[in-house]
Amino acid sequence: MSRIDLGDITRNNLGQVRVLHKTLFPVEYKDNFYNELLEAGEFAKLAYCNDVCVGTVCCRKEFVDEQVKDKFKIYMMTLGVLDPYRHLGIGTKMVQHILEQAKSSNITQVYLHVQINNTEAVDFYKKNGFDIISTEQDYYKNITPRDAYLLAKNID
Ligand SMILES: CC(C)(COP(=O)(O)OP(=O)(O)OC[C@H]1O[C@@H](n2cnc3c(N)ncnc32)[C@H](O)[C@@H]1OP(=O)(O)O)[C@@H](O)C(=O)NCCC(=O)NCCS
């Protein structure tokens, strides 16, 4: 039986978060991306399988409307699990954690982008209640295909 836990991102394990991102994603993330995670609280987590660090979810809290600063939405910047640890429910555990946190924090929506050829991720998000809202042409500048789906889930 695998034990799955979620843990905080701290200064001491930020290097682990970097290694996971370099391994999992074709996009390069800059220092300010990693440093901002230290302020994200429950919206940025590491995932452990039997105490081994195998995944991460990183979100950013945003204003729904820049003029009205009391309503927030969550942008899921990255979500990934190392290949040998996929299909164990770890991705689902991380997404459900973010949705639960959103529900208890006056958040109206969780949204994200996925490269259009990433069918595994699109299916995964649909199973977790997200809908494709639109296709954004040339969303990615340095990887192909450049188009992305915008997916979102409204929070009751
Ligand atoms: C998308 C991603 C995060 C999913 O992570 P995951 O840990 O494999 O997700 P889960 O295990 O929760 O769900 C995946 C599948 O396993 C199944 N599953 C969940 N628990 C299971 C279990 N105990 N036993 C067998 N299967 C299980 C799910 O039903 C789901 O089935 P499906 O593939 O038929 O849809 C992972 O594929 C990934 O890291 N991809 C690369 C990075 C990426 O593209 N991220 C998204 C864009 S940022």
Structure report:
The protein has 156 residues and is an alpha+beta fold. The protein has a single domain (4-154), classed as 3-Layer(aba) Sandwich (Aminopeptidase). It contains four helices and seven strands, in the order βααβββαβαββ. It has helices spanning 14-24, 31-37, 90-103, 119-127; strands at residues 4-8, 44-49, 52-65, 68-81, 107-115, 131-136, 148-154. A seven-stranded mixed beta sheet has the order 1-2-3-4-5-7-6, with helices on both faces. The protein is globular. The model has no long low-confidence stretch (mean pLDDT 96). It binds coenzyme A.
Topology:
Elements: E1 4-8, H1 14-24, H2 31-37, E2 44-49, E3 52-65, E4 68-81, H3 90-103, E5 107-115, H4 119-127, E6 131-136, E7 148-154
Parallel strand pairs: 4-5
Antiparallel strand pairs: 1-2, 2-3, 3-4, 5-7, 6-7
The chain binds coenzyme A.
